[in-house]
Amino acid sequence: MSWAFLRDLLSGVNKYSTGIGRIWVAVVFMFRLLVYIAVAENIWKHEHDEFECNIKQPGCENVCFDHFFPVSHIRLWALQLIMVSTPSLLVVFHVAYRENREKHHNQKLYRKPGKIDGGLLCTYLISLILKTGVEIVFLVLFYKLYNGFKIPHLVKCDIKPCPNTVDCYISKPTEKMIFLYFLVAPSCLCIILNLSELSYLIFKYSIKCYLKRHMKKQQ
């Protein structure tokens, strides 16, 4: 899979972000995207082939694997990265709309087309809320699908066509669990960063509105 578009998108949004937003971009790019491409993708690359059960009953191993791993870890993370980064397109499109509007009218309509204020502020806040919501949804989904953030060494399966309860073994469970935590932790950090930036922008805008009202009253 090519991640060039996602990389360019994050780089573009970085120009219009606050300091906290730039930290979020760095975390997504360095601790999630690069780790996913360089390490995690290879660890889970042959997860189905390396899943073994102590019985050779036709179909038993496939059914057990599908039961305990209904969705591939690696595909779920890839989908999460894409979905988390997608709301940033709202900001990019809004800035592009401002710039095109200025070109169309052939005059300066905004002090700084990329400055977070007015309608762009609302778009930015919406993107933060969406990113936070997506992160939480995927963490809950992952927890529900795999019964927690853990990789067991052994799973017992008694689903048909298995004739009885069979033992199935997952390859490199310790290594997988370490990188599982390494990918879940940055996701939690991104939620904290998004909420912090959301609070910061709302607080900053509230202070700005209060000062404007105060100045009007004095005048």
Q: What are the defining features of this structure?
A:
mainly alpha, 69% helix, elongated, 219 residues, de novo design (two linked rop proteins), 5% strand, 7 helices
User: Secondary-structure element order, as H and E?
Assistant: HHEHHHHEEH
Largest sheet: 3 strands, antiparallel
So what's the overall shape? elongated
Alpha plus pi helix count: 7
Helix content: 55-70%
- The radius of gyration computed from the alpha-carbon positions, rounded to a whole number of angstroms, is 23 Å
What is the CA–CA distance across the termini? 60 Å
- CATH homologous superfamily classification: Gap junction channel protein cysteine-rich domain
Level-1 CATH class name: Mainly Alpha
Q: Classify the secondary structure makeup into a structural class.
A: mainly alpha
The strand count comes to 3
- State the strand order across the main sheet: 1-3-2
Low-pLDDT windows of residues: none
Our estimate of the beta-strand percent is under 5%
CATH architecture: Up-down Bundle
